[in-house]
Predict the 3D structure of the following.
Amino acid sequence: MQKKLTALPFVLITLLLSEAVPGSAASANLDKQVQAITRSAILIDTHNDIPSFTVDGDDIARPAPSRHTDLPRLREGGVGAIFFSVFVAPDYVEGNHSAHRALELIDSVRQDVVAQHPKDFVLATTADDVVRAHKHHQIAALMGLEGGHGIEDSPRLLRDFYALGIRYMTLTHTNTNTWADSSGDLDDQKVQRHGGLTPLGKEIVQQMNRLGMIVDISHVSDETFRDALATSKAPLLASHSSCRALTNVPRNMTDDMIKAMAAKGGVIQINFNCGFLSQASADAEKKSPFMDRFKQITKEYRNDPQKRREETEKLLAEAKKTQVRATLHDVVAHIDHVRQIAGIDAIGIGSDFDGVDCTPEGLDDVSKFPNLTRALLEKGYSAGDIKKIYGENTLRLMRQVEKVATTSSKTLIP
């Protein structure tokens, strides 16, 4: 009896040690689980900004250490589908160049990514397309228009962009436009705000429902969110946002917003930008001139892609010197917070890779998604939970949006 009592703690200690030691049986089993999920899950990243570089000549198939995204690393990370961001910077509003810029980026996705690499990428516009691409071991290429100013206040252009493959539109970027308020210029006293969506803004949301275009509320003000939620018959998407309860910045969503969106089938796609994941990172970003300088470079070298790239590279190198990086555990914390307040069906991934200057340690680029898989497993998430987060929730939302379109009035606004 005495031997049994003394042996029990030794066994427990041995088991605990085996969990932590690389190469142990427990660690090897965890590796197998990560590999199995990487192979089987349809990992949909709902926001990636690499088109801002392919449009200037970068080849997505070539290894690009200075970027977050390239084809070899997408394969390594097990990425199955990407909503490529058709990001129209606010300065294109000046002189009515927004739609022109959007068309350039759409063409870059269709030609520079899909047409140039047809064995690896396929253009996708529906949930079924995404599933089909995964079965054929291709990466589904979808597109989201980032910045409602990109349609230049024209529902006709909205329909044209849908026909070209745009499947979500972010109602604003960091700028309040003529029909929707942004969260990005709250402190700018010169901005004429609307208190949410204008009547035109509500008509545009309704038009998106009729078309089957997802209403994306990342970047919008809280008032615009509430108006969009009340107006849309289809679930809303936050394509790249995180939780304000953990990192208090206007770009993140409050608990009430997350719960309200989830109640109508919406999904918050957790953003990997350090400043949205960690309060320490956010506080450091406030002191950084990065965004002001980036906007200046974008405007100054709008018509000189080579110079714009060179200046942006210099700026990124300089910014890294003062960064306070978030961690992989911060990402897990935001995911876990959403699960606790709104449930597992309300969570997705919208990395913002190649659209931010700081990513979390352990999630440095698109190849590192298996690190997140491991961290979620260690947190107690099941393989089924992770598959929901990685893609099933987004596919369900897409199908709901598609269904609303098929049952909506086809009356189109001029």
